[in-house]
Amino acid sequence: MPVTDVTHDLDALTLTITADFAAPVERVWDVYADPRQLERVWGPPGYPATFVDHDLSEGGRMNYYMTSPEGQKFYAYWDIATVDQPTSFTFRDGFAVDETFTANPDMPESHQAFAFTATDGGTRATFRATYADAASLQKVLDMGAVEGSTMAINQIDDLLAA
Question: Cross-referenced InterPro entries, in alphabetical order (predicted)?
């Protein structure tokens, strides 16, 4: 299980997940840089992701949806802010109303910072989400963000081993 720590702080408005992978930083980066690989691990098991747009560059946009086992689609987007390949990138992460990928104003948006650091055994990944207010963070916690993100990240080991 690569996830080693999950913390949320309602005062700092953050949710931070730490994971360790037995692969070099560049290999972990490749998971996010390649939409076909990212589709295999983004979202919890049973909710496969489909990236219809994937531009991991500053100013780029990623549009995707996850499909539930019942066939319901959940749309979302990433607006890429910064990229420091292969060690980090930041983006605005939000839910979309539908296949137009227009931001859903009724759902929380977050600023995400993904960082990959070399370790003796591979890579330590830190995934930090920052929300505008405690209510937004609490809403995603209530939606199961910790459980869903942990399950999604734990899928990466199998992909890296393949």
Answer: ASHA1/2-like_C, START-like_dom_sf
